[in-house]
């Protein structure tokens, strides 16, 4: 319900051209250790990982992703139940509390890159734009590591 | 209070207590008990399924006997869990070095529709060379999952796209095909590697 209201409000503000950068916060976000795995072709979805650090004094909410690499980028989360069954689904928004960090890492949350437009080639980078609730954006250059990479160090 | 009333009260309390005990038994051990949720996999010798490995060879549970094994389920269109599992296992195998030279390490796809033998062969080639990729028909995949007591389920993600929920544990077996424990998804290396060493030691005891 709240997200519907927010979406309508956002759509309305876009139509009438209201300034979207009102409350500050997103400029205090620092992204560390971004990385992604190379893909096999473009049919399979890719995944990117990073740590979002909020150096400010207000909570900041990540509301969306955009990249020329994939038509449908979205934050997904892997969950494993008591029987060892893993499932994955969209998480919607992520709020990074003031002074804290939120990690997107294997087995937890990841930027799921659906509908790849180009192959993710080891050694290259791609831009990933994060959009925050205050309207601010941050573009990160994500290095593409090998398919078998386990973390930002490879 | 008359003695008779006291007796009646006593009988009522005893009755309630007995009923509570009965309900407890019914729900915990009796016919009302829930099915055990996570069962142990069958021994490999009691499983029956046929698949094709990354080299095009016909394989099945009997192909694993004679050496200890690690088996896990996944699919190659899986962006997070499966590459993480395969790279975790590659790391464990690197740590164990020559000690695991004869261990069978098998990745079974739960998505044979998209994961052809060629797709599995390419996918496993990016990880530790010991990792095999097995692919069977829908029917054989279901039989394999039943034997391992693993589960999987197709989940639509919009359009023709879909993802698979699946058991992400790694199942271990000794050389005789007896179930020897699981390694949970993304279990830290310092726990996983000793578990594998124990299975290897058990195999040595059996064969010596």
From TrEMBL, chain A:
Signal peptide positions (record): 1-24
Keyword Magnesium (UniProt): no
Keyword Signal: yes
Keywords: Signal
Record InterPro entries: LpqE-like, Lxx211020-like, PCuAC_sf
Top-rank taxon, per record: Bacteria
PANTHER family in the record: BLR7088 PROTEIN, COPPER CHAPERONE PCU(A)C
Protein name: Copper chaperone PCu(A)C
Organism from which the protein derives: Cognatishimia activa
Automatic annotation (TrEMBL), chain B:
Signal peptide annotation: none
CDD domains hit by this protein: SCO
GO molecular function: metal ion binding
Membrane-spanning residues: 7-26
Residues that hold Cu cation according to the record: 78, 82, 166
Cross-referenced InterPro entries: SCO1/SenC, Thioredoxin-like_sf, Thioredoxin_domain
Every Thioredoxin domain range: 40-205
Pfam families in the cross-refs: SCO1-SenC
Assigned keywords, A-Z: Copper, Disulfide bond, Membrane, Metal-binding, Transmembrane, Transmembrane helix
Disulfide links within the chain: 78-82
Family to which the UniProt record says this protein belongs: Belongs to the SCO1/2 family.
Protein name according to UniProt: SCO1/SenC
Species whose genome carries this gene: Cognatishimia activa
């Amino acid at each position: 319900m709240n997200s519907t209201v927010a979406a309508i409000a956002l759509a309305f503000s876009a139509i009438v051209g209201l300034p979207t950068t009102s409350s500050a916060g997103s400029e205090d976000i620092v992204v560390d250790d971004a990385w992604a795995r190379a893909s096999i072709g473009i049919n399979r979805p890719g995944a990117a990982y990073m740590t979002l650090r909020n150096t400010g004094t207000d909570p900041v909410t990540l509301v969306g992703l955009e990249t020329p690499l994939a038509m449908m980028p979205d934050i997904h989360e892997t969950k494993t139940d008591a029987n060892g069954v893993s499932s994955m689904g969209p998480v919607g928004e992520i709020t990074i509390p003031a002074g804290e960090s939120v990690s997107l890492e294997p087995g937890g949350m990841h930027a799921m890159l659906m509908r790849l437009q180009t192959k993710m080639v080891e050694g290259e980078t791609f831009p990933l734009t994060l959009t925050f609730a205050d309207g601010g954006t941050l573009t990160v250059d994500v290095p593409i590591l090998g398919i078998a990479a386990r973390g930002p160090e490879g | 209070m008359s003695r008779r009333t006291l007796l009646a009260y006593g009988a009522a309390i005893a009755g309630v207590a007995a009923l509570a005990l009965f309900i407890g038994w019914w729900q915990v051990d009796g016919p009302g008990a829930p099915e055990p949720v996570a069962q142990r996999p069958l021994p490999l010798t009691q499983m029956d399924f046929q698949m094709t490995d990354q080299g095009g060879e016909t394989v099945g549970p009997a192909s694993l006997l004679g050496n200890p094994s690690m088996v896990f389920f996944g699919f190659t269109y899986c962006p997070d869990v499966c590459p993480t599992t395969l790279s975790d296992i590659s790391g464990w195998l690197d740590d164990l070095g020559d000690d695991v030279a004869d261990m069978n390490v098998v990745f079974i796809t739960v998505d044979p529709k998209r994961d052809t033998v060629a797709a599995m062969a390419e996918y496993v080639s990016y990880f530790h060379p010991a990792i095999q990729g097995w692919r069977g028909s829908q029917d054989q995949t279901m039989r394999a999952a039943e034997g391992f007591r693993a589960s999987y389920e197709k989940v639509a993600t919009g359009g023709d796209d879909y993802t698979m929920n699946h058991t992400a544990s790694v199942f271990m077996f000794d050389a005789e095909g007896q179930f020897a424990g699981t390694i949970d998804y993304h279990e830290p290396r310092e726990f996983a590697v000793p578990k594998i060493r124990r299975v290897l030691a058990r195999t040595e005891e059996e064969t010596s």
